[in-house]
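Sample A.
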Amino acid sequence: MQPKIRKYLNAYLFLFIVAGIIIGLDQYTKELVRENIPLGGTWIPLEWLSPYARIVNWFNTGAAFGLFKDGSLFFTILAIIVMVLIIYYFPRVEKQDLIYRIAMAMQFAGAGGNFIDRMRFEGRVTDFISVGNFAVFNIADASITIGCVVLLLGSWYNDLKIKRELKEKDPIQNNLSDSIQKEING
């Protein structure tokens, strides 16, 4: 294999494996719902789950969780932008930064899963997971949301780690910084 091809394969393999699994699961579950539950219909596998969770067949022309209805064109363009930015930025993230890589792969998969629906069904996305009184959503929506949470938690964790490393390197300087910060804050 040529070195250039191997370089790109190594850079994107993780992204496309994780995103491919999530997109595959998203598309498979949406197809199951479309084939087995009429539009607007509900399936409750266990009756006692009824007030808490159910599977419904619904569509959405807006964003995740039913927000911004009739914004399909905007969200189609946004999905393309997000996917292109992730493809651009992903190889720049160090391989050891697994948290960021997972978060980006989940966001890529969510954008891709809903993008596929918008292209196939005239701007509509199939939603089917209904929990309590919360808006109906799908696996792609959940992937975007969980990816954002993972990204935020990863950023917070890395920030704490950097501060800890700085403190270990120069405790006197950092104690001064802490004192100055306390003065500023209060």
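Sample B.
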Amino acid sequence: MSPRRLQTWRWFSHRNVARPLLLATALLTTISAVACNAKDHVKSMAEQGLPVPAKFKVIAVGDQAPLYETSTLAGDSVHVGQTNQPVTVMNVWATWCVSCREEMHDLQQLQDDYKTKGVRVLGVSVDESDVARVRKFVEREGLTFSMVHDQEGRVQQLYQVSGIPSTFIIGKDGRILWKSIGNLHGVVDSLKRVLDGAAR
């Protein structure tokens, strides 16, 4: 390699590649440290019996579900998180999410199999696009369970949804009985246990 090319390569390596990589690494390390410290701080507060700010609380199974009031594509009012509501399987999804689309017919099957047992299946689309896109998808797929278009993503904030699809089973008492990020694996067995416990 000629001296000129060697000099050019050194300049490119140190200025254009090495420094940005070092900066990116340092930034990621700082973010990770802050996240860990935040988690440790919250854990410490909880262990000491101190109140934890709501924005730091992780919604867990057994917690009261946040109150979520909205309307379906059909114009019906829906309330989630209140008492004296049907057992609800709430699925947060979007039309652009491939795995979300793939499990829509599984949700439809849940609706068909458990509707007579007092179970409500609720799909909540968080598409940022116009409602027409969601409505077109629902009609094309022949979905009959209740569907909501949450363009502002309120459900994601209330239920701390970190990824989609996300599914929650919410009991008649308004408490979260099961939740999953990812596919619906396990939802049927969990729903059966919920209904079995409610029948006793």
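B remarks: The longest strand covers residues 87-93. Residues 3-47 form the longest helix (45 residues).
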